[in-house]
């Protein structure tokens, strides 16, 4: 049987329950509360709890209590905690995307994708705390992948190269998103960006970091660059923007080599 001949029920059986639910491939429960509760309602309540108190605070018991039902009634809609996490992840990715840009503006398109992913981690700080179970297979997660691929549509790349670039951009965005998320948490807890960056420890580090022990780090600490003591004199600007631009430079160089028939390695 070809994939075109498969029924929605057959496709749903090939996916984890959470993914099948996200695609609407599972019939609603026939027992339990009817019309008073829905999968979307459960997921949105879980996200509300996670946004407020973190992922560890999300449980079927708490969600059920806040919705006015029993935990067992929730399991009729969502079979497990892992399925709930997948649905939360997918729902968090349901936000408006920027308009499509012309092909020559691919760098800006990639910047928008990375910035959007970083913002996702800041709006929903629990998002990167969910373990990576595998490749994205839920609809809104896949829309994020499609967004990342958008800028590469007309590039002279094969599909494997495109997906490798998606992984590169997504990995960088995830790393930066976690750092930004942690900075936000530190500031909310009463710290500051300067303290998070170690500015308050500059003097102490200059005493502790000896050139014979740390020959390459020592001059960086002495100059103030390690703790951004002289931020106004920083010639590269924001570290994360600088890193992204170097990634985009490498993609541009790779494209130039591909166009000139150079090696792909």
Automatic annotation (TrEMBL):
**Which parts of the sequence belong to the HTH tetR-type domain?**
36-96
Q: Per its UniProt record, what PROSITE patterns does this chain match?
A: HTH_TETR_2 (PS50977)
DNA-binding region in chain numbering: 59-78
In this record, what's one Pfam family?
A: TetR_N
Keywords on record: DNA-binding, Transcription, Transcription regulation
Q: Which GO terms describe its molecular function?
A: DNA-binding transcription factor activity; transcription cis-regulatory region binding
Q: Is Transcription regulation given among the entry's keywords?
A: yes
In which domain of life is the source organism classified? Bacteria
User: Which protein, by its recorded name, is this?
Assistant: Helix-turn-helix transcriptional regulator
Protein source organism: Cohnella fermenti
């Amino acid at each position: 049987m070809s994939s075109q001949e498969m029924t929605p029920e057959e496709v749903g059986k090939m996916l984890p329950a959470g993914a099948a639910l996200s695609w609407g491939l599972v019939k609603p429960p026939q027992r339990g509360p009817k019309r008073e509760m829905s999968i979307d309602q459960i997921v949105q309540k879980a996200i509300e709890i996670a946004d407020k108190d973190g992922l560890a605070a999300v449980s079927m018991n708490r969600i059920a209590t806040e919705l006015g039902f029993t935990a067992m009634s929730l399991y009729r809609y969502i079979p497990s905690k892992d399925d709930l996490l997948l649905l939360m992840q997918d729902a968090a990715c349901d936000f408006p995307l920027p308009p499509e840009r012309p092909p020559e503006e691919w760098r800006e398109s990639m910047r928008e994708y990375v910035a959007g992913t970083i913002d996702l981690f800041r709006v929903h700080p629990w998002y990167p705390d969910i373990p990576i179970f595998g490749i994205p297979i839920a609809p809104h997660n896949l829309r994020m992948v499609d967004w990342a691929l958008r800028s590469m549509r007309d590039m002279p790349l094969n599909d494997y190269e495109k997906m490798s670039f998606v992984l590169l951009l997504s990995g960088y965005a995830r790393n930066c998103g976690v750092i930004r998320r942690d900075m936000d948490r530190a500031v909310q807890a009463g710290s500051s960006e300067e303290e998070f960056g170690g500015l308050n420890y500059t003097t102490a580090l200059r005493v502790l970091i000896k050139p014979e022990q740390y020959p390459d780090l020592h001059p960086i600490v002495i100059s103030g660059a390690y703790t951004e003591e002289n931020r106004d004199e920083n010639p590269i600007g924001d570290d994360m923007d600088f890193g992204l631009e170097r990634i985009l430079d490498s993609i541009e160089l790779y494209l130039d080599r591909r166009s000139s028939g150079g090696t792909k390695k």
